[in-house]
Hints:
Blueprint: E1 6-10, H1 17-27, E2 36-40, H2 46-53, E3 58-62, H3 79-84, E4 89-92, H4 95-100, H5 105-117, E5 121-126, H6 130-134, H7 138-153, E6 162-165, H8 179-196, H9 198-203, E7 205-209, H10 217-222, E8 228-231, H11 238-248
Parallel strand pairs: 1-2, 1-8, 2-3, 3-4, 4-5, 5-6, 6-7, 7-8
Helix pairs in contact: 1-2, 1-11, 5-7, 7-8
Phosphoenolpyruvate is lined by residues 10, 166, 171-172, 209-212, 230-234.
Amino acid sequence: xxxxxxxxxNWKMNGSKxxxxxxxxxxxxxxxxxxEVVIAPSFPYLSxxxxxxxxxxxxxxxxxxxxxxxxxxxxxxxxxxxxDFGVKYxxxxxxxxxxxxxxxxxxxxxxxxxxxxxxxxxxxxxxxTLEERESNQTLSVCExxxxxxxxxxxxxxxxxxxxxxxxxxxxxxxxxxSAEQAQEVHQSIRAFLAKSSESVSQKVxxxxxxxxxxxxxxxxxxxxxxxxxxxxxxxxxxKEFIAxxxxxx
Length: 249
Ligand code: PEP
């Protein structure tokens, strides 16, 4: 099955009106691509970014949502609000949310459910810590993180989702998984999804994330089960990010 590649940039809590304007000006020079190119700015800049990319080659993502629909949840942002700003994707279960903000598997599953209800496409981030990898728990961790979501929304919902395999030890560390290591895990994730639905498993795009750079991503994109990349640090540099998009084809 041919799956379109996605290259997504997670800007995390970076940027200012000025720096985002100049980053976007660089990105908008990229022109058309065979891959879907997604950017995830911080909430306050969604409106600015949406206005600048309107109708262009970039697709908007948010970095988080509330697991509640609306009401007295000071400081939270709802899925429906994001729909108002042209957001298509939302990152959920990012390891920084799991580790720093103590988001459990069940909170992540609740957020996935709300996102889907309001027409957002979750990018479900999963992945093991270094300790878990060293004790051969990589697959059991990924499977547990996926199973909780299957239990909450059903396997068919994965047709409207993207999975991002992001080994925690590779995020922001400069230590990327090798193309072969990524392929091994991606293939296993697909095989795990296939136990619930073969057809869904073939459709789901599985992205790799963790210190992806222009200089090393070509081998990654050759792998049959790697359907793109979720890029953190390197997405803050227009030239570098465009080179990653070009390498994806
Ligand atoms: C991320 O935060 O999703 C990520 C992959 O970061 P980096 O590319 O900086 O490792």
